[in-house]
Amino acid sequence: MSETTAPVTVVPATTATRASSSAVTASSGASVTTRSRRGARISLGALQIVLGLFYAFASALPKLIAHPSATEAFDKLGWGSPGMYTIGALELAGGLALLIPPLSSVAAMALGALMVGAFIVNVTVIHGPYAATPLILILPLALIAWARRSHNAELVRLVRRRA
Asked: What is the pTM of this model?
């Protein structure tokens, strides 16, 4: 051996050292899982806020204030002002309900159904270039409805309690 190298002593692993190393691995794995779940909850909450604001302001507001572009589109459909205000009110209610935890899953399902209708109208009546937009919006709505499905039981309990 040279002067710069030191002898290495190998210590056999005991049951105690194996248990402590697996405890460290398990606790670090649990913290990674906890962090990823927390990140998923935060991301889902942010998605709900963005979609809620989108439906309330970008989608419902032009219909509710009778913006010329919305009025023209609904006149082209033959639905006129009553149809425009109805769809606008449904979108506003759904957008706001996305922000209320017990209502988020139901709101996502209702808005998803509204987007199915919007897609069908876009394809069959309007033949417009924006037919894919409702389909794109259905994906995050389905994610919210599925991830927040536990809120449905909470909502049923609230409704039963009041009935």
From this structure: 0.77
Q: Give the separation between CA 114 and CA 96, rounded to whole angstroms.
A: 15
**Chain mean position to CA 18:** 42
In degrees, rounded to 5, the angle at the alpha carbon of residue 152 between the alpha carbons of residues 149 and 91 is: 85
| pLDDT one-digit tens code per residue, 121-146 | 999 998 878 889 999 999 999 999 99
Q: How far apart are CA 64 and CA 1, in angstroms?
A: 87
Which residue bears the tokens 């998803």? Answer: 112
Cα distance between residue 108 and residue 117, in whole Å = 14
- Tens digits of residue pLDDT in 50-101: 999 999 999 999 999 999 999 998 998 899 999 999 999 999 999 999 999 9
Residue type for position 2: S
CB 47 within 8 A of CB 143: yes
Residues in contact with 130: Cβ distance below 8 Å, sequence separation at least 6, in sequence order = 122
